Amino acid sequence: xxxxxxxxxxxxxxxxxxxxxxxxxxxxxxxxxxxxxxxxxxxxxxxxxxxxxxxxxxxxxxxxxxxxxxxxxxxxxxxxxxxxxxxxxxxxxxxxxxxxxxxxxxxxxxxxxxxxxxxxxxxxxxxxxxxxxxxxxxxxxxxxxxxxxxxxxxxxxxxxx
Length: 161
Fold this sequence. Notes:
The chain has a single domain, classed as Jelly Rolls. The chain is built from 2 helices and 11 strands. A hairpin with a 6-residue loop joins strand 2 and strand 3. The radius of gyration is 24 Å and the shape is globular.
């Protein structure tokens, strides 16, 4: 009996450590790495004008939580004036992304962002965009992501896709 109690006293202090190690090892974050060939491109959501492609790299942009996605726009692509409910973080990956601020699409207000450029558009700020050549931007933030057009008539018609 004494031997069993001594054994129990010797093992007992390590039980919580073993359980903690088991929990922490299963809760350890895992690396999430993608190469360009790993990206799964598909049509951009119907909220955007037709012709763009989108790849989600992390998270679910339609839900609460962090997300990262890439948007590939063809030459001549335009996004009418709109705004977002959350911060939108934009990094230009390739091409040239043009962005302007305001309620109307004014080419004179466009600023060209080259690859490596970064910007943050705060919630509610009206802005518009254009890509004169094939351009890829990376968008990230905390969702849900979406956009509201300043002029409801600019809303793309999902049925025409």
